[in-house]
Amino acid sequence: MLTAIAAVYDAALDENLWPAALAQFTQMTGSQASSFWVLDGNDRSLHPTFVTINFDRRAVDDYVGGLASLDPTVRYLLAHPQEPIVHDGMLPPGDDEDTRTYLDWHVRSVETQYRLVGQARLGTMLQAGIALHRTRKAGRYEQSDIRQFAFMHEHLQRALRFGVRLGSLTSTQQVTTALLDRNVAAVVLLDSQRRVVFMNRSAEQLQSRGDGIRLSAEGIHATHRSEDECLQALVTRAICAQQSGRSIGEVMRVSRLSGRRPYNVCVNAVARAPNALTLFRPAVCVLVSDPEWLIGPPTQHLQSLFKMTPAEARLALRLLTGESLRTAASRLGITYGTARSYLTQLFRKTHTQSQGQLIRLLLSCGLGQGPIT
């Protein structure tokens, strides 16, 4: 029993281990088959996760493909999400068309006859659990079987709740990382020892360029000594603010070895102290923005929003960076007269009347970001 309980905790943290956990449960309870299932009332497929052992693959496909919604046990579980343990003796007699359709299929396709289910309600529309199955020859689940299963069910519930918390945190982390990676600004998180604990994709690109700012496991540094002293002072103040529960944010500029425009650097304290049980303990967030990059809508978004041509969209993005119309024309390799013609079309398509109005409108449409090319 202890081995089976340990297997459930392992599987709740790694879903690839559910077959091994089901095998332990099946053997220990004298069952012939079992399944781990998730019922999602918000999901059209109903069973987004369905892992089985000792069932015919074709029967499983038929079941998940539509017959599960006709299953009297599934309907009972959906109607009673708070019921921890469900067995055949609890199901009301059913003689409706759905039940008859399901039972006809079950007799033809599945060898098992009796079922014992333990579940946990994990959210408003989310349930999960284990179903044990016996053949007619093995016989029903008796009260002694149900009592034994009830003891194990306490651990099953706890393991599933651990699993859903970890899964939710992992999903949140993936979404957060994806959003941070879309940010054109370099995002660097430091711990209280100034060590880098996270970099987004822009920060990795910044690290590879080595143009005025150095990033390593030991921290973030400016190449010029005087600027680095200022940067480290900002980091120190941010760490002190985080430790005292205060919010602080300070800015500076960092020169580049290439001679391009300096980086804009913002150093912020992470306001909330981390939980006790975590390996991820950020204390400082450093944002590095490169003025050589555009923060605004890429050309394809402008083409979709305002029916611009590719050439018009390229001109609009140049104007958005603050370039004059003549400079933008030169950068794009077109004549000033052609640029004026494009600008007239831009005013018409965006319902604006001046270059200032056009730029304000484009800034309000910041759907993405990319480099100026």
Write the element-wise H/E pattern from the N-terminal end onward: HHEEHHEHEEHEEHEEHEEEEHHHHHE
Tell me the total number of β-strands. Answer: 14
Helix-strand makeup class: alpha+beta
The end-to-end span amounts to 65 Å
Helical coverage, percent range: 40-55%
Portion of residues in beta strands equals 15-25%
Shape: elongated
| Mean pLDDT reading | 88
Low-pLDDT stretches are 367-373
Strand order within the widest beta sheet = 2-1-5-4-3
Count of alpha/pi helices: 13
The main pleated sheet reads as: 5 strands, antiparallel
The Rg value, from CA coordinates, equals 31 Å
What does this structure look like?
Helices cover 46% and strands 21% of the residues. The model is unreliable at 367-373 (pLDDT under 50). The strands form four sheets. The protein has a five-stranded antiparallel β-sheet with strand order 2-1-5-4-3, with helices on both faces. Strands 7-6-12-11-10 form a five-stranded antiparallel β-sheet. The chain has helices spanning 2-13, 18-28, 57-64, 72-79, 97-109, 143-182, 201-209, 225-243, 299-306, 310-320, 325-332, 336-350, 355-363, and strands at 33-40, 49-53, 85-87, 112-123, 126-135, 186-190, 196-199, 213-216, 219-222, 249-254, 263-269, 284-289, 293-295, 369-371. It is built from 13 helices and 14 strands. The protein has 373 residues and is α+β, with helices and mostly antiparallel strands.
